Amino acid sequence: MAKHMTDSHRRFLQSLMCCGIIEGSKARALHRHCCEVHRVHYPHEGLDDFIRVINTHLQPMFMQIRKGMSEEDGVQYYALVNITETDVTRMASDYSDTELELFRKAMDLIVDSETGTASSTEILNLADRLQPKKMKKKETEQVLQRLVQDKWLYEKDGEYTLSTRCIMEMEPYIQNIYQDLVKVCNICRNIAIQGQMCENPECGIKMHIPCVARYFKGRTDPRCPSCNEFWPHEIPDLSCPSPQAPSPGQAMAAKENTTQDTAPSRSKRLRK
User: Fold this and answer.
1) What pTM does this model have?
2) CA 199, CA 206: separation in Å to the nearest integer?
3) Which of 169, 181, 248, 250 is such that its CA lies 20 to 30 A from the CA of 21?
C-alpha cells in the first residue's frame, strides 16, 4: 500500500515545480527543510524513498521526479518530468512553431556532432532555413537565450549542448529520433551526447566525461573496459569541485519564506 503524502512531501513538490530541476545538494537541503518545517522525522539518507512516495501519487497525472546526471561535470540532479509526451511539441505552449523548428534543428546539429555541441554561428545560420517562416538573426539569438534560461540548452563560450533537464525529460524522444546516432554510456548506461569514444573500430563504446574520470582514476595504463585497447584520450580530473553557489539550501528556504503567505506559484509546464 502506498504511503500517504504529507505536508512535507507537498512542500517539496511545490518547490520543485517552481524551478523544474535542482541539483542533488539542493534537493537534499530542501528535503531536510521540508521535514523540519512540518516537524516530521528526517532520515539523512532517505531522499530517494521520500521522492518515491511523491512519485506514487504523481503517477495518475503521468508526472515523475527523475534523477539524472550532468554530462559536463557529473553533478546529480532531480527534475520533475512529464512521462507521457516525448515529442518537442510538449513545448508548444511556450514556443511558436518556428521557434520549435529552431530547437529541433539545433538538436540535430548537437547530436550529429562528434563533440555533442553546436556553435552559436552554426545555429544562427539555420535562421534562413526555418519553417513555417524564416527568423532574423536577432530573433534567433533571443530564442537561444530563452532556451538556455528555460534550461533546454546549455551554453558555454559560444558552444551549445543539450541541458541535463532536456536529456532527462526527452530521453525517449532522443533515443527514438536519433537511434542511429546516440550511444549509451558503457559505465552508467544512460544516453551519452557528450563523451569520449573508444577508437577501436570494432568496439566504439562511449563514456560520459565524468564516468571516464571515475573509471580511470588512479590507473596508469587506461584501457577500454570493453575491448581492453589502450584508451587514447586525455583522462579528465574532476576532483577539484567547481565554485558553489552560496548556501543553496538556505536560498531555497528563504525563497519559500517570501511566498509562504501567498497563493502557490505555478511553474511553466511543458505541454502540448
Assistant:
1) 0.76
2) 10
3) 181
